[in-house]
Amino acid sequence: MNTVEWSDALLLDYEPMDTVHREFVDLLAAAQNASDAALPQTWAAVVAHTVRHFGHEDEWMQRTGFASADNHIMQHRVVLNLLREGLAMAQAGQMDPVREMAGELAAWFAKHTQTLDAALALHMRREPPPVATVHRPRGGRGAHASPG
Ligand SMILES: [Fe+2]
Ligand SMILES: [Fe+2]
Q1: By Cβ atoms counted within 10 A, which residue in 56, 118, 127, 133 is the most buried?
Q2: Which residues belong to any copy of the Hemerythrin-like domain (predicted)?
Q3: Integer Cα distance of 48 and 135 in angstroms
Q4: Rounded to two decimals, what is the model's pTM?
């Protein structure tokens, strides 16, 4: 089984994303190390985190008009649906498929982070912050026609 572990290879140099990714690794590691009795609860925490994690990324992509948003958002949706199915299985006492899913999730996460999330992080580092701090003059002043 792939066991999730934080490594600097997962760092994307975009702090809001790195923070949420460290949290993901911690929660998935807790689920992977959980006893059968604790697995449903720890898996529920992974699912709850993932709703927020993917929700943030989806919102960043939609707000900034990120070019590859559709594919990335679709991948989030597919994975989140699988994780929810896993939760139903854990709650029904089917632990083996959930442990298998956890290993697959760990491998998926590393790949996703280093490809789609890396591209998004690069894009977000170039975006202005969401709250505008620059006040643009309204009306006539500053509205000069550009030459040529
Ligand atoms: Fe992510
Ligand atoms: Fe993502």
Answers
A1: 118
A2: 14-114
A3: 38
A4: 0.85
